[in-house]
Amino acid sequence: MEKSLARYIWSNTRLEQIWILLVVAASMIPYFLSFDLPKQIVNGPIQGKGFEHPGDTQTFMHIAFDPPLIGHIEVFQGLQLTRMWMLVALSLIFLALVVLNGLFKLYINTYKGRLGERMLRRIRFELIDRVLRFPPLHFKRVKPAEIATMIKDEVEPMGGFTGDAFVQPALLGGQAVTALIFIIMQNFWLGMIAAAIVAVQAIVIPRMRKRLLELGRQRQLTARELSGRVGEIVEGIGTIHANDTTNLERADIAQRLGLIFSIRYDLYQWKFMVKFINNFLAQVTPFLFYLIGGFLALQGRLDIGQLVAVINAYKDLPGPLKELIDWDQSRQDVQVKYNQVVEQFSVENLIDPKIQVVSHAPAGRITHSLVATNLTVVDDSGARVLDHVSVEIQPGERVAIVGESGAGGEYLAEAFGRLVWPDTGRVSIDGRDLLELPESLIGRRIAYASSETFFFHGTLRSNLLYGLKHAPLIPPTYDEETASRVKWQMIEARRSANPELDLNSDWVDYAAAGATGPHDIYSVIRPVLDTVAMSQDIFDMALRSNVDTAAHGELTSRIVELRQALRLALHEEKLEELVVPFQFDAYNLQATVGENMVFGTLKRPQMTNRKLAAHPYFQKVFSETGLVSDLYDMGLEIAENAVELFTDLPPDHPFFQQLTFMTAEDIPTYEALLQKLNGKGYEAATADERAAIIRLSFSYIEPRHRFGLLTQMLMEKIVGARSKFYENIPADLASVIERYDAERFTASATLMDNVLFGRIAHQQANAPERIHRIMYDVFGRLGMHDSVLSIGLDFDVGSGGKRLTNVQRQKLNLGRALLKRADYIICNRPLPALDHRVQDQIARSMLSELDRNEYAPAIVWVLSNPSFAELFDRVLVFNHGSLVESGSSTDLLEKNGMFKELLS
């Protein structure tokens, strides 16, 4: 990277800088005229110079030139104006100069702001581009939070400085010099005084600010280290809690914050000391002007107009001068930050940009062997984890790697996947070093899966298809307005040296996965998910999800058909009792009291149980039916039972997972409320207290909670109140309650609730599992597996995929590798979270599925369990970083060597 920030800015923006410097030079002309004009106004029409007699006139706007060789040129003879009209004309000219100077400033500041933002965009992209080209080993030495902080925060001032780098000293320096020259032209000695003060400010203040720069650098480093430490705490929170080291981390953070505080306090003290001295020097000059200038005016050596003009000119001198000094400090400060960025991002052995060039064309098949020659890999401690290993993997060959953990096989797999770079030797294909081949070939034709999984924040679909997103293949369709905006964005991207790649395009390489487009991609995804035993997980996620009716209109339009098919399937298997359907004239014992009252679902978060209980219409209707007091009494009983049963349990007790109407944090609140309302009736409670008590009854289910609170009479009253509730329901309440309708899809309910249109009878043995199985068959019978799969793939995996279990992450990671249909599939202990039986099942399923495919990839699998080796053509046995045995599992067993020891 360029060491000097000024050179970096100039090399990338020289044409723009030259243009804006020319504009700055042009702006000095009206700026100078605005100083001279007040003198003409005061001396001329105001004091009457040239207008000694009534009716005298003066020439206004006489424009003429006397260029050499050409002679006198008369452009405009001017206008003859009286004293009053001259005052008006000069004042209007002064106003015009003010507007013109303002327009110059507006244009200059806007232009340099845009220039700065482009440069900030450029440098941020360049840094992230370098991160993408860091060698793998470097990522073990840096903290992600520190890198992110540097790109996000530390380069921020560089964008603002880019616009000021050349323009600001030219503009401010030009303004200061213009003002100073004007003062000297009016009076030499006053000019020398101003020049002397300016010299002191220009020399003393920058020297004093060197201390500020050092403190600023220390502040930046400590803040970056704090960011990295906080990132470590977030990533290692499980380890911290498991080892009771929360207070150790608090002490560490407190010490870091204390150091930052002391640095910042010193910075503030020195900063305001410098500001005090600078302001003092700036205010001394007007004092001298008033004193000395006034003395010269009294002696007649300086007229009043000149004194006013000098004072007016000096008024504009401290501002540019102060800003110029600030610019110099900013320049040094930004240069320090830039040096730190250059130091952090100047990494040896960066990946050549040519290797990562975008390729829209399909990658050709790899038909040659994957060869490791004299391969040696050294870890960070200097130990050889792979020692002079040579091995050849033939196309289509199935190779198992066995050995104890750390024996060396894992590192060979990582070298094949380019996750580690060899210290000596190389991995090659057709004689070409793997590290020199483009990622558009290796990243598409070699798939790698290990136990170390990472998923980006987004949906399951985006993460599963991530390995197919190499280039924008299908451009989106834009309306005219959006197309114009996108075109402008692409132009700006080019000006900022960013790639002109449209993220809104469809990047998925469907052909590489064996599909023709988005309409049939699920026919490819489903076998892969079946292979890695992930289909049932995604089906369950779909059933628990709310369905976007706009995106999945085909399924939602067939909801009635699905409900009827489910009822028929239950009838055929004589399992009708597994589901209690919703009926408007009957109470559903498996549903909550709240659902039974409104015969529908609440649209959350707009409406909650507490809000419903406090709503005036709800209170009015259910007061008329007498249900409010019944629900209040039920809520009190629930609160008393819950407090009595759970008050002494720890907050993480599993009982609280079954307590749907109250959390562990609510127990103390309701305990205090019960003490206050003990022995008092409904009328004694406030409106908020009634709502808090009544809302407990909304989540009550008799067969589940079994407090014996739901009588037959109460159920009949609730059913009877439904019609009355909906008779005159206000619009605000109707908009947040979705009523159950057997002929309509309920958008605020889950897919499972919609298909069931009722509730599972939990008293039946294994009812949820049996219902899931029947539903799966129903969706398949109606040809809707792809629709359900699409809903499940909409599931948000969370940050780093943490909403998935470790088992699900490892399955999904392997599935992503299989979906690429690569020529070489490297599996580096990909499923250690699963038991050996499931690992064996997935491995057999995967090998069987790949045997049925026409492309027959080569597979290199580092096994966690050596007994699976019989599934492979060849077995490589590693020990202490060396390849000690190679052959089929049968041959190795006959040798009675290390492979047999590993099996025993």
Automatic annotation (TrEMBL):
Ribonucleoprotein listed as a keyword: no
PROSITE patterns attached to this UniProt entry: ABC_TM1F, ABC_TRANSPORTER_2
Keyword annotations from UniProtKB, A to Z: ATP-binding, Membrane, Nucleotide-binding, Transmembrane, Transmembrane helix
Residues annotated as domain ABC transmembrane type-1: 75-326
Location within or outside the cell: Cell membrane
Main localization category: membrane
Membrane topology reported for the UniProt record: Multi-pass membrane protein
Cited Pfam families: ABC_membrane (PF00664), ABC_tran (PF00005)
Annotated SUPFAM superfamilies: ABC transporter transmembrane region (SSF90123), P-loop containing nucleoside triphosphate hydrolases (SSF52540)
Segments traversing the membrane: 18-37, 85-108, 179-205, 280-298
An example Gene Ontology CC term for this record: plasma membrane
GO MF term list: ABC-type transporter activity; ATP binding; ATP hydrolysis activity; ATPase-coupled lipid transmembrane transporter activity
Residue ranges of domain ABC transporter in the record: 370-902
Protein name: Putative ABC transport system ATP-binding protein
Naturally occurring in which organism (per UniProt): Rhizobium lusitanum
Classification lineage: Bacteria, Pseudomonadati, Pseudomonadota, Alphaproteobacteria, Hyphomicrobiales
